[in-house]
């Protein structure tokens, strides 16, 4: 089957939405708004995250919403800044009002140094939000048991981390992501730590349903070109996964026939 | 009357609604959410919800983030 045909038949469905791109993106850390829009377009992403903050009464902020909507992006508000379930639920409810979507990336990280997600508060908030009709995508450690609990709680997908947020260290949690992917009945989106296109391709080759990238694009030397590179890597990784990777061996297995022609004529 | 918006005092006419307050503040309404005394007021109620003296209003907006 040709790649295009393969891709046409390979859509990602999460709750009520269907995605042809498996690269989700964040909107943070870009130098300016135009670079962000250009990079997101180059990434072909159809789902972008946003945050919420208190309005600064003294200054006027840029309206970043209009260009995102104009470019057909689906918005995924996050609960960044929430330190416990109560704050995250409040943030999700505010985000639903602000962005008129019931989708939420649930993230609760009380510790600003490592920004690691709090599993207990996340599970509590996920249960409450799913019961309240939210499409919940929780950001979690690569913990297979927790991911099954979140699935049972009604989450639409899970977003386990590869490495700490913004660290660009790659897929450090590989063995555990593989277990999560093997066991999940909901999409697995590898989030956080993906620092280069090869990291994204690896996650996709492992069978992740999608990846979420922000820092590695936003702070790259050329964010627009890098976003395009990520788009290609995600497609390549997905195609490799669908194609069935060849197995590994400790011994060499010859790719050329081992005929004895060098010895001929002796 | 006076209300507090994100810790800043704001003077508005008696019986102002949430919508009137937001117009007065000249802030973009798109991508905003608002709570009065910690209760979220849904957008569809903004034109009818009347504010009272001393109300604590928290105003939020969508920004870039990962």
Topology:
The complex is a heterodimer of chains A (266) and B (66).
Chain A: H1 3-8, E1 12-14, E2 17-19, E3 23-26, H2 33-43, E4 47-54, H3 65-70, E5 74-77, H4 85-99, E6 103-106, H5 119-131, E7 135-140, H6 144-152, E8 159-160, H7 174-183, E9 189-191, H8 197-205, E10 210-213, H9 215-218, H10 223-243
Chain B: E1 2-5, E2 8-11, H1 18-25, E3 32-36, E4 39-40, E5 56-64
Parallel strand pairs in B: 1-5
Antiparallel strand pairs in B: 1-2, 3-4, 3-5
Concise summary:
The complex is a heterodimer of chains A (266) and B (66). By secondary structure, chain A is of the alpha/beta class.
Describe this structure in words.
- The complex is a heterodimer of chains A (266) and B (66).
- By secondary structure, chain A is of the alpha/beta class.
- Chain A has a single domain, classed as Aldolase class I (TIM Barrel, Alpha-Beta Barrel).
- Chain A has a five-stranded parallel sheet with strand order 5-4-3-10-9. Chain A has a three-stranded parallel sheet with strand order 6-7-8.
- In chain A, helix 2 runs parallel beside helix 10, helix 4 crosses helix 5 and helix 6 runs parallel beside helix 7.
- Chain A is globular.
- The relative contact order of chain A is 0.14.
- Chain B has 66 residues and is mainly beta.
- Chain B has a single domain, classed as Ubiquitin-like (UB roll) (Roll), CATH 3.10.20.
- Helix content of chain B is 12%, strand content 36%.
- In chain B, strands 2-1-5-3-4 form a five-stranded mixed sheet, with no helix packed on it.
- In chain B, a hairpin with a 2-residue loop joins strand 1 and strand 2.
- Chain B is globular and about 40 Å long.
- The chains are: A alpha/beta (266), B mainly beta (66).
- At the A-B interface, strand 4 and helix 4 of A face strand 3 and strand 5 of B.
């Amino acid at each position: 089957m040709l790649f295009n045909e393969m891709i046409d038949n390979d859509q990602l469905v999460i709750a009520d939405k269907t995605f042809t791109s498996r690269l989700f993106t964040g909107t943070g850390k870009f130098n300016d708004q135009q670079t962000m829009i250009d990079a997101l377009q180059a990434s072909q992403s159809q789902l972008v995250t946003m945050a919420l903050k208190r309005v600064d009464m003294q200054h006027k902020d840029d309206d970043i919403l209009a260009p995102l909507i104009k470019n057909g992006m689906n918005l995924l508000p996050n609960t960044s800044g929430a330190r416990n379930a109560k704050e995250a639920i409040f943030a999700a409810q505010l985000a639903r009002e602000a962005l008129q979507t019931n989708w939420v990336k649930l993230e609760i990280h009380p510790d600003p140094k490592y920004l690691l997600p709090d599993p207990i508060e996340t599970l509590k908030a996920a249960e409450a939000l799913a019961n309240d009709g939210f499409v919940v995508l929780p950001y979690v450690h690569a913990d297979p048991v927790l991911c099954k609990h979140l699935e049972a709680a009604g989450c639409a997908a899970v977003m386990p981390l590869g490495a700490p947020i913004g660290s660009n260290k790659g897929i450090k949690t590989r063995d555990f992501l593989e277990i999560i992917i093997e066991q999940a009945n909901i999409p697995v989106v590898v989030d956080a730590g993906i620092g280069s296109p090869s990291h994204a391709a690896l996650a996709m080759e492992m069978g992740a349903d999608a990846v979420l990238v922000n820092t590695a694009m936003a702070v790259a030397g050329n964010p627009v070109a890098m976003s395009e590179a990520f788009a290609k890597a995600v497609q390549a990784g997905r195609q490799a996964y669908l194609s069935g990777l060849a197995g590994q061996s400790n011994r060499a297995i010859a790719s050329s026939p081992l005929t004895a022609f060098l010895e001929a004529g002796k | 009357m006076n209300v507090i918006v994100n810790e800043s005092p704001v003077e508005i006419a008696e019986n102002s609604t949430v919508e009137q307050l937001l117009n007065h503040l000249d802030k973009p309404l798109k991508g905003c959410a608002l709570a009065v005394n910690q209760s979220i007021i849904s957008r569809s109620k903004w034109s009818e919800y009347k504010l009272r003296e001393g109300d604590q209003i928290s105003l939020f907006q969508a920004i870039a983030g990962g």
